[in-house]
Design brief:
This protein is of the alpha+beta class and about 270 residues long. Helices cover about 40% and strands about 20% of the residues. The longest helix has 22 residues.
């Protein structure tokens, strides 16, 4: 198998995003570019130069409908396949991924589930009507999300944890997580995600992805409409209030990080089959 360059990973990931956009336009599903992909669109009109992955948000009802569409149209969307906790027993996340099966990723310290090049799809759920409510919900979700991640690791990597106390505490957490298993924590996260409905809440966010903290809980009004924005020569949807979203997540997002931090953060090696 041939290892892919960053440029090839970006090109392949962009093709997946184009497929998602086509499906959403056909079926009238809502979606928005998210996280670093949203920064890339606004600041660079494309990928952040040292980044190679793509993230999108989908309101829960559209997210569920998108999964159903991909399941019903498996033959029509090939070589792409939708991977989620519902159709892959080893899949370790509460989010889903549209995957290009012509490629294979060797993921560091993760139980294999056949991952290829992918786009992360984050469901947006109701988080609450007050700051106190959404902080409490996100705190519970963050705990389960961290344990879910630990449960999917082949071995414990203490080197990724800073501070002696945290490293020591991580050992029993890892043992507990492995004993309970990934499915247990995914079920807990799903239960939290269903406590409030996206359409009736004042605040929304990806509840099942707890590691992004309370900064990733937003007033729903910021996502009530979208605008089209350039990304690597094509146009995709971003929240109309993208400036508010990005400032909440990253502060002065137009300022480039120091040169030493302009490095990719991916944890895999990608190959063409």
């Amino acid at each position: 198998m041939r290892e892919l360059s960053m440029t090839e990973i970006q090109t392949g990931s962009l093709e997946i995003l184009k497929k998602i956009d086509a499906i959403c336009n056909e079926c009238n599903f809502r979606y928005f570019l998210a996280y670093g992909t949203l920064i890339g669109a606004v600041r660079h009109n494309g990928f952040i130069p040292w980044d190679d992955d793509i993230d999108i948000w989908m309101p829960r009802s559209d997210y569920d409908s998108f999964i159903q569409y991909c399941e019903k149209n498996k033959d029509n969307i090939r070589p792409f396949v939708l991977m989620s906790q519902y159709n892959n027993k080893n899949y370790p996340f509460g989010i889903s991924r549209l995957v290009d099966t012509r490629f294979l990723l060797d993921v560091k310290n993760e139980i294999s589930y056949g991952l290829g090049l992918f786009v992360d799809i984050y469901p947006l759920d109701g988080a609450g009507d007050t700051e106190k409510e959404y902080q409490e919900r996100k705190k519970r979700a963050s705990r389960y999300s961290s344990l879910c991640f630990l449960s999917s690791r082949v071995s414990l990597e203490k080197g990724t944890t800073k501070g002696l106390k945290k490293k020591i505490l991580k050992i029993p957490a890892y043992i507990y997580a492995k004993a309970k298993g990934t499915k247990y924590f995914l079920k807990k996260l799903e239960e939290i995600s269903k406590e409030r409905d996206y359409e009736t809440c004042d605040y929304i966010g990806c509840v099942v992805w707890g590691t992004d903290g309370v900064k990733a809980i937003f007033p729903k009004e910021w996502f009530q409409s979208w605008v089209s924005h350039e990304f690597n020569g094509s146009y995709f949807r971003i929240p109309k209030d993208y400036d508010d979203v990005l400032k909440r997540l990253y502060g002065d997002y137009m300022k480039l990080p120091p040169a030493e931090k302009r490095v990719g953060h991916h944890y895999y090696v990608a190959y063409e089959k």
